[in-house]
Automatic annotation (TrEMBL):
This is 4-hydroxythreonine-4-phosphate dehydrogenase PdxA. It comes from the Bacteria. It comes from Bacteroides ovatus.
Length: 52
């Protein structure tokens, strides 16, 4: 009983530390320098049949 309580406390401490670490890591995100433009005009059209 005492071991499981101790383990629960250690898990709670780990969760707390991980949340704090993630909070610090996400505090100042780097902004995107560019935006991807999705242009499908140059994709291959493999599902069409070319009839010559």
């Amino acid at each position: 009983c005492e071991d499981s309580f101790r383990q629960a406390i250690y898990v709670a401490i780990d969760v707390f530390r991980n949340r704090q670490r993630e909070k610090v890591a996400r505090a100042n995100p780097v902004r995107k320098q560019y935006y991807e433009k999705r242009d499908d005009s140059d994709k291959l059209k493999l599902d069409t049949v070319d009839e010559d």
